[in-house]
Write a structure and sequence with these properties.
The complex is a heterodimer. By secondary structure, chain A is mainly alpha-helical. Chain A is 62% helix and 2% strand. Chain A is built from 17 helices and 2 strands. Classes of the chains: A mainly alpha, B alpha/beta. Chain B: GO terms for molecular function: DNA helicase activity; hydrolase activity.
């Protein structure tokens, strides 16, 4: 399967409402309130931050391919499915992604895991001279600390071997082999996504997504069974506040110290709407953040009802129901007005 | 220090039993405190000649090197050997990281520096407080206008050396002609002990294949690779071409493992590819000159040039990656008439044109119009000639043209070698040494060698393990 075909069902989610690039922002995990909101609103949260290094070029190429294949169109720069596109929209490629929860920590976790395995494997084979798979000194320091604190070499690395064995057994044969090919040790050096893709005649981005999917499964499993993974769980970076934009983080600290929005506005000399953006960001990213101070339970219920109604009415369906007698432009205008009204409610 | 003592430390720090040719006499000269000018062929362990003296001394040794990647690789190699008191000081560091290194200089035995760092008075103030054992200039040919890689920022090293109290100096190069050597000596105006070792490699057979068309070039390439599975490098001057030829070869040789490598790739992918090649996991690497800086792989059997480089020095360096184990190896350059247009084009990009010079002098914003080397050249010339009464534009234009002429001559020098009907070995090294050693295997295509007859034992194979469970057991040494 090509990346472009995999992208198709994601594009359908934002059909008639967003540009194709909005999906790029989601995949790359752009830290903006807009992108966060989009990933929730269009049920794309699982894909948030799963391809942090995806290039604009590669993405545009996939979009152009879909257009060339007659699967999507752009109308007033919004993405729209063609009939053929609708037909191909089933998700045949089962990935178990959970980008909203793990997107931000996947990469550091993965690099640390690779370096730990490489180091343990080499040292078990008495090879003290090897080149670490990463030049990043902070990663090297974190692994050095693990060696000091947990002695992963004890009993020829039995603990790590056992934990890895259990993690790999969670996977299907294909994914397990794929994942292992990316790992470096004393016997062989890991392959790049590009190389695996060449070997298996696949799209390198799909290889990257498969690896992400494996890592998300593992992260989910380790965090729900922490006592079974005493060594590997140490590699998981703390889910700290680094997912918030810096400015939102500052607002959060002030808010937690009991300041009101007005007080924060005055102190930070920012527009009220900016601080409200931060509060929205907090509400989206932090499950424990209570919005009750701003929205009563009753209001929340009413808003949810309208929103959910609205969500089911995707652009195309609206057009169909109107027997195609109105243009997308007209529908969009009305939706835009509706959106404004929604915002007015939540701000009010 | 007596011989066996030096060898003891060689073993202790680097794990080698004996010195390679030339290393010991250079080290002894350095330890005796002589200013030393030395040449050693690529791949013969030049860096040990200053690393070992640095480790045996109490103060700090400063190494000036023109290439960031080179310094980073060197430090990585040292750290892998357990030698930790080394650091780099380059433009890659932010001011915070830089300050941290400067604050801890007393813990550093070996400091790799880019030349522009030594122009900063802040940095120099810290260095002046240290006891500098040795001042080492790597790739010292960069000091010379006649060198193939002349670097303007090398031209202030004499001042730096004086400010540091003139510690013993070691100037190293793999390729320094008489002219270049003289330039180096003149620059410092000091007496030097010269230790010049011949740089020819008697175990490498040289050959050139003239082709008429691209298709024929590809056919020749295929013929070379068909012979045997062996560690092979193919050099390109273009990133795109290295990729496209790599894909073509993958199609033709599905059972070989072939990859490309160039400066445009993610650094982690570059590390993987480089290490795979070291592990014999890759058979063929299609690369640009970005590859191979710190690569010390002993069993490279074949170095092919798909594109010609821009001078004899680069060619000597690049084929010098072959056969470091001393076993028979082949260097083959594929030449199609007109190939020289690429290096001619590339040197044009290194130096500013007239329009750029005048725009620069009128202080126009050129930030995204100049390449890094163009900008450095202009900044240096403008500063150097600040007080000149003559027209600055014409002075810079003149220097540019002179430099361009040197570069063009270098390309022509390589072209002459390609077209020569004399022994390739004699012609290739003529500029650098009086005579060449007797080749240990075939000499070159002008001396009767036929590429088609070349035979080598099939000595390298690697089979990739794909099954995860077997791999996991191998990783942990379980059977």
């Amino acid at each position: 399967m090509s990346f472009s075909r995999w992208l198709l069902p994601r594009l359908k989610q934002v059909e008639g409402e967003r540009t194709p690039r909005s999906v790029l922002h989601i995949l790359r995990g752009k830290k903006s309130a807009q992108t966060f909101q989009d990933s929730r609103l269009f049920h794309l949260a699982d894909f948030y931050h799963v391809l942090p290094r995806l290039s604009v070029d590669a993405f545009d190429q996939a979009i152009n391919q879909l257009k060339k294949d007659g699967l999507i169109e752009e109308q007033d720069s919004l993405v729209v499915m063609t009939e053929l596109g609708e037909h191909f929209c089933q998700d045949h490629w089962q990935l178990e992604l959970n980008g909203m929860d793990y997107g931000a920590i996947t990469r550091p976790f993965y690099i640390r895991l690779q370096l730990l395995i490489q180091s343990v494997s080499n040292l078990i084979h008495n090879q003290t001279q090897f080149f670490p798979i990463t030049d990043d000194e902070s990663v090297q320091a974190s692994i050095k600390k693990i060696f000091n604190d947990y002695n992963p070499l004890a009993q020829n690395g039995e603990v790590l071997y056992d934990e890895l064995n259990r993690l790999f057994r969670l996977l299907n044969e294909n994914d397990a082999n794929l994942m292992m090919l990316t790992i470096s040790g004393s016997d062989q050096i890991g392959l790049s996504y590009q190389q695996i893709a060449e070997k298996w005649q696949m799209d390198p981005i799909m290889i990257e997504l498969s690896v992400q999917s494996v890592l998300h499964q593992w992260l989910g499993y380790i965090t729900s069974n922490p006592n079974s993974f005493n060594l590997i769980k140490q590699l998981i970076p703390k889910q700290d506040e680094n997912r918030l934009t810096e400015s939102a983080l500052l607002t959060k600290h002030m808010y937690n110290r009991g300041m009101s929005i007005d007080q924060i506005v005055e102190k930070r000399r920012l527009k009220p709407s900016t601080i409200e953006d931060h509060i929205v960001e907090l509400a989206m990213k932090e499950i424990l953040f209570s919005i009750r101070k701003f929205v009563s339970l009753e209001d929340e219920k009413r808003i949810r009802y309208v929103l959910e109604e609205d969500m089911t009415k995707r652009l195309k369906r609206i057009k169909e129901q109107l027997d195609g007698q109105v243009s997308y432009f007209q529908i969009r205008l009305v939706i835009a007005r509706l959106g404004q009204e929604k915002e007015a409610i939540s701000n009010g | 220090m007596v011989e066996h003592q030096l060898e003891h430390y060689l073993k202790k720090y680097f794990g080698f039993e004996t010195f390679k040719v030339g290393q010991q006499s250079i080290i002894e000269s350095v330890l005796a405190g002589h200013n030393t000018l030395a040449t050693l062929p690529t791949g013969s362990g030049k860096s040990i000649t200053y690393q070992l003296p640095a480790l045996l001394s109490a103060g700090i040794t400063i190494v000036v090197s023109p290439l960031l990647s080179l310094m980073i690789d060197q430090v990585k190699v040292l750290k892998a050997k357990g030698i930790k008191r080394v650091a780099t000081l380059t433009s890659l560091h932010n001011s915070h990281q830089k300050q941290r290194i400067l604050n801890h200089l007393s813990n550093v035995q070996l400091l790799y520096c880019s030349p522009e760092m030594l122009q900063q008075s802040h940095v120099m103030n810290y260095l002046k407080q240290q006891h500098v054992n040795y001042f080492v200039i790597d790739e010292a040919h960069c000091l010379s206008q006649w060198g193939h890689e002349f670097r303007t920022d090398y031209l202030k090293l004499n001042t730096v050396h004086r400010e540091l109290g003139q510690p013993p100096l070691l100037a190293l190069s793999a390729t320094a002609t008489d002219e270049v050597q003289q330039d180096i000596v003149n620059h410092f105006n000091l007496s030097f002990e010269k230790i010049i070792y011949p740089i020819d490699r008697p175990n490498i057979t040289l050959s050139v294949r003239n082709v008429e068309t691209v298709e024929e070039k590809h056919r020749q390439l295929t013929k070379l690779l068909e012979k045997k599975r062996m560690p092979t490098m193919i050099y390109f001057s273009s990133r795109m071409k290295s990729e496209s030829v790599c894909y073509m070869l993958q199609q033709q040789f599905p059972d070989r493992s072939i990859a490309f490598y160039h400066g445009g790739m993610e650094s982690e992918d570059r590390l993987l590819i480089q290490q795979q090649f070291m592990y014999d996991q890759l058979d063929v690497i299609c690369c640009t000159s970005a590859f191979g800086m710190g690569v010390d792989k002993a069993n490279i059997r074949l170095v092919i040039h798909y594109h010609m480089p821009s001078d004899l020095e680069s060619y000597i360096q690049e084929i010098g990656r072959a056969g470091r184990d001393g076993r028979p190896s082949l260097a083959c350059l594929l030449y199609q008439r007109g190939d020289e247009s690429l290096p001619f084009h590339l040197i044009g990009q290194e130096l500013p044109d007239d329009e750029m010079i005048s725009a620069f002098l009128q202080a126009e914003d050129l930030s995204d119009k100049l390449t890094e080397t163009q900008e450095r050249f202009l900044a240096f010339q403008a500063e150097k000639n600040r007080y000149s009464s003559n027209d600055l534009f014409h002075i810079i234009q003149q220097v540019r043209d002179q430099r361009l002429a040197v570069k063009k001559d270098s390309i022509i020098g390589l072209l002459k070698w390609i077209h020569t009907d004399q022994c390739r070995r004699q012609v290739l090294y003529k500029k650098f040494q009086e005579e060449v050693k007797t080749p240990e295997y075939d000499c070159c295509d002008q001396c009767g060698f036929r590429v088609d007859d070349w035979e080598l034992p099939n000595d390298v194979s690697f089979s990739l393990e794909v099954n995860w469970e077997k791999r996991l057991n191998e990783l942990f040494n379980k059977r």
